[in-house]
Design goal:
20% strand, single chain, alpha/beta, Beta Polymerase, domain 2
């Protein structure tokens, strides 16, 4: 007969030393012990504000004119009074601003009595916003004194300056150039006409209100046969 006990495996008794296997929990256990106080929250990190940019240093003051005091200036002021509006030195350059009514007499005095026998230049500047928009400037040199000075006078739009040709013959060409470029007339000039541009050219290129590319279109078309000289 078959052994009926072979088909039945007896139950295994649990080993008393064997511990039951813990099943994994669905959630990780908290590291904190039950009842322990919660850890203090870290304070927020504060970023210090950027330092303000340093204020720019104030610009140094530029050079300014200083009074021009000399025996020659004293003599001229004594003779012409308020006709000498200003006598100053700027960056080593001495100049006088003289009223138009006496500027020829001042130039003659400088030529005849103060030995300024060389006319370096006669030129002009244009300040359209001023009531007297033009300055005529005579630059004089004295070989005897080894001194260079400037004499200025102010002119309104329609006013003329006195010609210095009777004092310095080179004023002839210099005054013609001022007339050509600025349109300033010189009373007493022996031959006042343009020297660089054609005689019938319209406009005065060195005035501030004259465009650098402005042309006398009519003259260009008639004389050159083109629409523009540009």
């Amino acid at each position: 007969m078959p052994d009926e006990t072979k088909g039945n495996i007896p139950p295994v008794s649990p080993d008393k030393d064997q511990q039951p296997v813990a099943q994994p929990s669905a959630t990780a256990p908290s590291s904190a012990s039950p009842g322990a106080p919660a850890p203090a929250a870290k304070p927020p990190v504060t970023v210090p504000p950027k330092p303000a940019a340093p204020l720019p240093s104030p610009k140094p003051a530029g050079p300014t004119p200083v009074p021009w005091e000399s025996e020659m200036v004293s003599r001229l002021k004594q003779r012409f009074g308020s006709g000498i509006r200003d006598a100053s030195t700027y960056l080593g350059q001495s100049y006088m601003v003289v009223d138009r009514s006496v500027v020829y007499d001042v130039l003659q005095e400088l030529h005849d009595e103060e030995e300024f026998n060389y006319l370096v230049d006669c030129t002009a500047t244009h300040y359209p916003q001023r009531p007297q928009p033009f300055e005529v400037i005579w630059i004089l040199y004295s070989f005897a004194r080894n001194q260079r000075i400037r004499v200025k006078t102010l002119l309104a739009e329609a006013e003329a300056a006195p010609s210095a040709v009777p004092l310095w013959s080179t004023a002839n060409w210099l005054e013609r150039e001022v007339f050509d470029m600025f349109g300033i007339r010189f009373d007493g000039h022996p031959d006042l006409r343009r020297i660089l541009l054609p005689e019938d050219w319209k406009g005065f290129p060195l005035r501030k209100d004259h465009s650098i590319i402005q042309q006398d279109q009519e003259w260009v078309q008639i004389n050159l046969g083109i629409e523009s000289g540009q």
